[in-house]
Each structure stands twice: as structure tokens, then as C-alpha cells.
Prior knowledge:
By secondary structure, the chain is an alpha/beta fold. The protein has 4 domains: 6-179, 3-Layer(aba) Sandwich (Rossmann fold), CATH 3.40.50; 185-246, Helicase, Ruva Protein, domain 3; 251-364, Zinc Finger, Delta Prime, domain 3 (Up-down Bundle); 411-541, 2-Layer Sandwich (GMP Synthetase, Chain A, domain 3). Helix content is 48%, strand content 9%. It contains 23 helices and 10 strands. It has helices at residues 6-9, 22-34, 51-63, 82-89, 106-114, 138-149, 169-172, 185-198, 205-215, 219-232, 239-246, 251-263, 266-278, 283-302, 312-321, 326-342, 349-362, 384-398, 455-472, 477-485, 512-526, 543-563, 566-574, and strands at 40-44, 95-99, 126-131, 155-161, 176-179, 411-412, 448-449, 486-494, 497-504, 529-536. The strands form 3 sheets. The protein has a 5-stranded parallel beta sheet, with helices on one face. Strand 3, helix 6 (138-149) and strand 4 (155-161) form a beta-alpha-beta unit. It starts with 5 loop residues before the first helix and ends in a 16-residue tail after the last helix.
Amino acid sequence: MMHQVLARKHRPRGFDGLVGQEHVVTALRNALTQGRLHHAYLFTGTRGVGKTTVSRILAKCLNCTGPDGRGGVTAEPCGVCDACRDIDAGRFVDYVELDAASNRGVEEMAQLLDQSVYKPVIGRFKVYMIDEVHMLTTHAFNAMLKTLEEPPDYLKFVLATTDPQKVPPTVLSRCLQFNLRPLPAATVHGHLATILSAESVQADEAALRLIARAARGSMRDALSLTDQAIAFGAGGVREDPVRAMLGAVDQGHAIRLVEALVDGDGAALVEAVDDLRAAGLSAQGTLDSLAVLAQFMAVAQVAPGALPADDPDAAAARDLADRLPADETQLLYSLALQGRQELPLAPDEHSGLLMLLLRALAFRPPGGPARTAGEGSGTRAARPQAVAASALAQADETAPPRPAPPEAVLLEAASGLPGVPPSRAVRSDPARSTETPNVPPVASAGPIVVGAPVGRALDDWWDEIVRALASRGAVQALARELAMQSQCVAEHIEGRGRRLVLRVERDSLRQPGQIERLRTALAAHLGETITIDAEPGPVDDTPALREARRVEQRQQEAEALIHNDPVVRAVLAEFKSARIVPGSIRPIQN
């Protein structure tokens, strides 16, 4: 007996065997059970998700006569009657499949419609299945419109397409449309395991996982790859042969690359890419593995329980997710996807991969994790900002305390000011300036708080500090957003250090990674040891709100300048229909 490929041998014969398309199955089952049959159906979706399979099952449901030959329309075709067997074998005369990619003209359509006036030969319904219907010409579509809208009672149309955007609206409006979704990798994995168990083929879970990911939502692609893997593996589906067949890169290489990025170790990145080149592993496969790993890391950062417990790659992703900030994880994922388009433009694919990873390293913010030059061969020196911050912190620990400046306004905490707990030590110095960042902090002899008359001074100081950090690029991405959207409500003196209490309204900004990056930037800028407490709550005076007010004020001044300009007023007076277009006035950016 000749061998039959898995995609044909295990094609579902009924709705029970169709996986991953429950929304379509439920609708069709209910319509068949209740007798609410439409005359035209349109199935859309990418390749290999079951469009043709659903069409054949529907044709069997309409024409099944049951094992005893007395059955009617049913949602559960028997599979043993003549109609069911003939449709499965492709020889049922009243079920016609037309490939519109090769029969796209008006002549072929006219020939098909000429046969529609005749009743079914042996079945209950005639079913015309037109695959890739979007390939029909405009004249062919026009020729079928009338019959598609009002077909005979015995005629059903089933249209299938991978590109519904190219189907005319006049056709779409005459059909019930069902979108067959790409199958999740877990669904493909489970179905492959079931099929290979029925075929008595030994398969590794890791190999099936690789095939399921490579299929990209197409069950037919997965089954074709499985056929290829069985031949490649001499009757079995094993991880190493499947990796070689797919050109997939072991996740360990991707983990090694991300660890080098986390450590800020450029030499380790270069060495890892050289090892990939020496092993003959493709850069494209490496980017795919990096994208999968970055996706797992991003999920682990927001919902650790959502990762599959049985996937060995999930454990490594959880560990790396704790070491790389969420915004840098997103950057890594974006670079991995965009790098696929850049690889063909590079001198060779591995040099393109190396430049992509070095770009990810260059985009890391100042003060990020880095190793010093003495921690091992091949490591790069720590970033200058991190070294400066460390030196300033050490100098601050040994510096003797200085007396408070006379202009500092200090009040006793026992004064009972509203909103300030007496146990907090708070200081506000309205005379401080960002121009002298190296002045050591003032030592506090006891609990002190800022009085209400100088409450605005703390907001002014925080606005100046954040603007200075932003102008120098010391804070970027979400750390910059945290600084802009926070209100400094208190400042505490703790020994020789300074603790800032920031009120942040958005929960998404109060992440430990962003707070640490802002703290590092402030310590380097002020030359002091800084601690940050981020508390939730409403804000009414933040650098972002002040910037919005400044922008609005500049806009109003610009509009007033234009409206009061003598030349503009003279033109408006002379030409009665003349007007200043709303929104056309923009202030000059300094």
C-alpha cells in the first residue's frame, strides 16, 4: 500500500476532529441542528487552518444519509454512508471544488454556473466550493453575483480565501463569514503528539515544541514538517535532528546572549556570536530564539504564572526577567524582529547579528549593570557614570557633616502640620541650586519638617532637577517618565544620605527597576547617596504638569502676539473674508 502523508491521512472527518476552531464549529453545529441553513458561506484564514476541511465536513453534513440510508441533515455525519465516503475520497459528483487561482476567468465561472440549474444527481444538495476566491477576476465576480444572492434551494456556495480584503463587498454581503484563526503552538503540539502516538512514532517533547513553533499557526505546515522530521530522523522525531532540519538555534545560545546583555559585557557578546558562526548556526535562527526568549521574559515580568510550567525555557526566562528591566526586554524583542529585515543587507548575516546585539547594548541606559575590568578576562570597563556615582557615594560616607545653611527653613515636626507624620525628618532648602551638585547633605539633629510657606519650594527644586536630568539624557524611557510624572512630597535626611518621597499616580511607573534607575541618576547628578520611596496617590504638581502649563503659556503668548500684530490686524481689517486658521500658530522653540 502506498504511503499517505500525515496531512491527508489524519484530515478530520467530522467536527469532533477539528481542533482550534471551536467558534466556527459551534456556529455550524447550531445552524445544522436548528435547520437554519444559509445559502453561502465564506471561510477566511491563513493556510493550513482548516478551510477546505470545514467545507468537506459541511458538505457531508448536508448530504449524509446515515448508516441505514434514512438520515437527514445532521451536525454529526456518519462517515460510512456512500455520500460521506465519496466526499472524503473526492469523487462525490454533487460536491465540486474549484481552484480560483487557476480557474479565475469569467468563462470558467459561467461554465460552473450553467451546471447549477440542474438538480443534484445523487445527493441532497449541490455544494460548490471555490477555493482562493479572491483570485477571481472582476468579471467572474460579477457573473456569479445573481446566482450567489438567490441560488436554487438545492445549491450551497462555500467560498474560501486567505485574503478577504480582496473579495468585493458585494460578495461579502451575500455570505456568512467565518474567520478561522491561526492555531496556538500548544494546540498544534498536543495534536501532533496524538497523531504520532496513533502512528507509533517515538517523539521528543522538545522536538514537537520546535515543530509547533515553526508551523506558525498552520496545522498542515506542522504535519508536513513532522513528515519531514520522521524521514530526517530515520523513523523518529528527535530534538537534535529537528533543530538541524529547521535550522533552529538551541535556546541556550539565546540565553547566553541575553546574559551578556544583562552584564553589559560586549566582549562576551562578540565571543558568543563567533561561537555561533563557528558552529554553523544561522543568524536568522538566533533571532527567532531571541524573540521567543524575550517574549517569555516579558510575560514573566507581568504574569509569571502564565508561562507553561512544562517548558524548560520558561525557567531561564523567569531568571532573566528579574535581571533585565521591562522596557529593555521590549527593546530586545523589537530588535530581534526588526533584525530579520536587516540581515540580508549586512555584509554577512553573522556580522549583521553582531551589530544588532551591540546596538541593544548601546541603547542600555547609563548606570546600568556592568562589570569592572578586573572581574575577568574579556570584560569591559564599567560605565563612567556608574564609577562616578560609586566614588561620590564613598566620598559622601567619609565626609564630616556640615552645619545647615542659614537660609534653610526648618520647623519642628511636633507643630502638627497636616499631612506630615511627626516621625518623619523632612528638610526643604529653597536656596539650593542644581548648579552646585557636589554639596554634601545637611545632617539633621532631630525630626524636622517643612512648613507650609515653603511647600512650593520643594516642587520647584524637583522640577529643576528633573529638567536637568532630562536635558542631559541621564534618564530615559520609563525612568524619565517616572521622574516627569512624580511629585516630590517630602525629603528626609538620614545620616549622610537623602531620602526622597515621590508620589506617583500610575501603578505601571512604580516598578523597582525604574525606581532604581532614577535613584542612580539622581545620585550621580547630586553627588549624594539617594533613597527613593514611591507611594501611590493623586498628584497636583509634577514636572510633566508644569511642562504642559509652560507649553500652554507659550502658545497663548504666541497667539496674542499674532492677534495684536499691527500688520495682521491691518490685513484682517482690509480683507473681510480673511481669518487666522485655528491651530496654525506655533510658538518658536528656543
